[in-house]
Every structure is written in C-alpha cells, then in structure tokens.
C-alpha cells in the first residue's frame, strides 16, 4: 500500500457511496471466509487497519443472536489470523462499544476503561468478546492493536435502525405526506452520551497517530442527554405538527437508564475533543433524511 492510499473491504463494493469513487479502492471479501480475508490483505498490504465491520444493531441481536455472535467474533478472528499468516505488522484499530459495560450503576458514572464488563444484549456480548480478543492477540501474538470503545455516535447516512435516524426518517416522511402525522417511539427516558460520527472518524485517525498500542480507549463527549431531548430537538426543526406515540416493538428487553463517558485517557494521549455540536448533528441527520425521501430512497 502506498502512503496515503485508502482501501475499503466490502462484500458488495458496487454498493459503496458514489462520493468515495476515485478516493477509495474497494476490494470484495467476506470476513466470515478466512481465505477471502487473506487474499484481500495480500492485495492491499495495509499499514493501518480500521476494523469497523459487524452486526451493530442491538434489537436485531436479540432477534438473531447466533448470527450476531458469529459475524462479529469470527470475522475479527479471521482478520487477526490473516495478519499473522501473512506476517504483516499493521496497526489494528478495533471498534468495540460502550455497550460492553452494560448494567452500570449510577455511582460508576462517568465510565472509564476500568469499569467491569456486564453486557446485557447479544450485541454487547459480541463486542465484549471482540474487545477481549483484541487484548489477547496483542499479548499472545504481539499484534499492534488499539481498542476503541466509542459511546453512541450519530450522523447523516446512519440507518434508521438507530434512534436519531429513526426519528428523523419518520419526520421527513410525515412532512412529505408519506406517513400519518404520528411518530412512533421506544423508551424516551434513557440517557446516552452522543458524539457526531465525523468527530468519531477524526478520533480514529488520532488514535493510530498518537494512541498507545495495546491500550483500550473510551470515546465520547462526557455529557448525557435523554432520548426525549433528541426527539424534542428534531421536532423543533420539523415543518408540521406531529403527535408522538409509544411503540412496544421499539422497546428493548433490557436497557440501561443512563450512560456517560469518561474519555480523559484518550484526550490526554491524543489531544482529541469533539467539535460538532449535537444540535448541528441532529439538523444534518434530518436534512439527510429529507433528501432521501425526496429522492424516493
């Protein structure tokens, strides 16, 4: 790989964003197939690997726990095995999740990297396994790993399987007359630590440039807001009156009331801090969904 060259691994490269054409060289591979992963790494020969792939939806993990565990854990294992087989020595940044902390107590907030892992969903279990696997391969095989534990992040293009996009997509469809003026919601009382995905992407770049190999880093804003606040803020950007109704299908079997991140280790080591206000993020998310609705996507 030439300096500054970017490769992207995808099952279907043809579905890649048009904005990436000419900027990213895509290669087709399935992380569940070790031979395909080996072939992809042999072709790209990366100096840095950002491992972000996986099944990332919590409700879906309850509906399909087997595939969630298989995809997230086995896919990462194949990536590590391929690196060892080819005798490469890239920096491997692995995106875990704050969900690994699970059932936290109020006295433990804000959460630092020493907080015990108590996952409460199949997704969280899979991410905890990924996190531990990253540590294990650093210790036992000397892989140059960095464990990132991002808290909730949102932004344009996020699937409506996630809360902010779920709200924004409904608002956009209501404004366009494609949905009755009723917005259906899950648990609005939960409080989460949200960061704009563009700040998160910048943090990953900071991590491989200035982070310490072998460490785990929490990544978040350090502030919690309620899901109701997200909804109310998005509604202020709306163009019509919208009623709100609870939807039992959007409730999780297990949920954590409040989550706040302590990212002081990462900030101290890299100098990173979030730059994009959450209000701007939410406005951008709604504008994205308005555009999608107009285009019939």
Radius of gyration: 20 Å
- Class by helix and strand content? alpha/beta
Mean pLDDT: 94
End-to-end separation? 35 Å
Record field, number of beta strands: 12
Instruction: Enumerate how many helices there are, as a single number.
Output: 9
Shape: globular
Helix content: 40-55%
Low-confidence stretches: none
Molecular structure report:
- The protein is an alpha/beta fold.
- It has nine helices and twelve strands.
- The chain has a four-stranded parallel sheet, with helices on both faces. Strands 1-2 form a two-stranded parallel ribbon.
- The longest helix is centred in the N-terminal third of the chain and has 21 residues, at 65-85.
- The protein is globular.
- The model has no long low-confidence stretch (mean pLDDT 94).
Summarize the structure.
This protein is α/β, with parallel strands linked by helices and 297 residues long. The protein is 40% helix and 15% strand.
